[in-house]
Amino acid sequence: MNKHLTLMIALTLLLSITIISLFLIGTLQCSLAQNSGTNESGLIGSDATWKQTGSPYNLTGNISINTGATLTVEAGVTVNLNSYHITVNGAFVAKGTNTNKIQINGASGTGPSMPPPAPNPYPFTYGINFTELSVGYNVQSGSGSIIENAIINATTMALESSPKINNDTINGYITSNGTALISNNIVAGEIDLTGPSTVLNNHISGSVLVQTDVIGGNIEDSSNTQGTAVISNNVITGDSINGIGISFLTAFTNNIIISGNTISNCGNSGIAAEGIGVIENNLITNNHDGIDIEGQNTVTNNTIENNYIGIQQVSNFLSSIAYNNIQNNSYNFYLYQSVSGNVNATYNYWGTTNQTAISNSIYDNKNNSNLGTVNYVPFLAASNPQALPNPNAPTIPELPALLILPLFLSTLFVAVKLRKRKITNLNR
User: Fold this and answer.
1) Alpha carbon distance 194, 118 (integer Å)
2) Who's near 18: CB < 8 A, 6+ residues apart?
3) CB-count burial class (<10 Å; 0-12, 13-18, 19+) for 99
4) What is the mean pLDDT of residues 94-102?
5) What is the CA radius of gyration of the chain?
6) pLDDT class for 356, splitting at 50, 70, 90?
7) What is the predicted pLDDT for the residue at 238?
8) Confidence band for 56, pLDDT divided at 50, 70 and 90
9) Angle at 273 between CA 268 and CA 275, to 5 degrees
10) Which residues contact 146 (CB under 8 A, 6 or more apart)?
11) What is the C-alpha to C-alpha distance for residues 381 and 349, in angstroms, rounded to an integer?
12) Where are the domains of the chain?
């Protein structure tokens, strides 16, 4: 009996070990399968969804979304572009959430040719191209191509139609010759506009909590006459050495509006106004040049301060320059060597009402007889309070986070005490 019992125990142990081993192998295989993700390449000819359960999605070749087809990427999905790209002729819908973001990873490389004026080669892979055939975003229906609540690393986007790029963190390069909406993003790279796109509400405050969007680099515009390009309500921090906050080359129409921005720390110019447009209600500070004027522009209600040169007139084109605060720059106004005509810069505030001090802050004919004269009289006797981004917006002071809980507890304590006093009075 003892031998049989021993044999049964041994067989039971062997069976248990086998079952446990098979379970562990299955779990390991399942884990490996989950970690390896899903490989994708080729044509997407009908509606498809990349689900979180199949993540990460690894491109092993180029992807093309056919006309009439929609590729939907679920929240939480990771897409590894590797050295490939996605061409959108239909619709591309990638909507994460604030707590479950989509991640799109590119890779270093040159990628295929980009639509002009994008440089080629460019230090990031050509990642996602929304062609002219792609379905734009429809605000009313909430449908169409959109990338929202995504983290996009080391890649580029070419926007030839009207997708919505919203509330994303983007490390790369964006070129848009369509009517795209680029809003509420964190962008470390360059935005290059060649069409009437809108760049709206992009913001950074140094190391403080980012509320909307960062543009750490350049916005360069070569807008055509299809419509009006709008660059509005952004906080733009250029490169400390070679950065240009915004430059634009336009046809002879007012087809660019630059308004309500804070532009700082650009090694060249905050705004290089090489065409025709409206520049209003911006704060332009701590750049080498605040604004370089080379075209016929309307420059009004801006504060241009603490730059080396506030405004530099580069050409003889006549611009409207009025109601700005041009102050505390090494040179408030500077005529470039080719400017022989006179410049009208009346009705601006120059940081002082002392005419000698104002004159000394202007480089013109009195410094070089080959130059024209900057006429600044009459001038504003006080700073223009409207010459700032959103001058009429109410100011709500922010409380430090550590004070919120004590304030809440104090309020609750007072409320409880008042409630007890009321109950005591009623019982008397």
Assistant:
1) 10
2) none
3) exposed
4) 97
5) 30
6) very high
7) 73
8) very high
9) 140
10) 92, 93, 94, 95, 137, 163, 164, 165, 166
11) 7
12) 40-216, 223-396
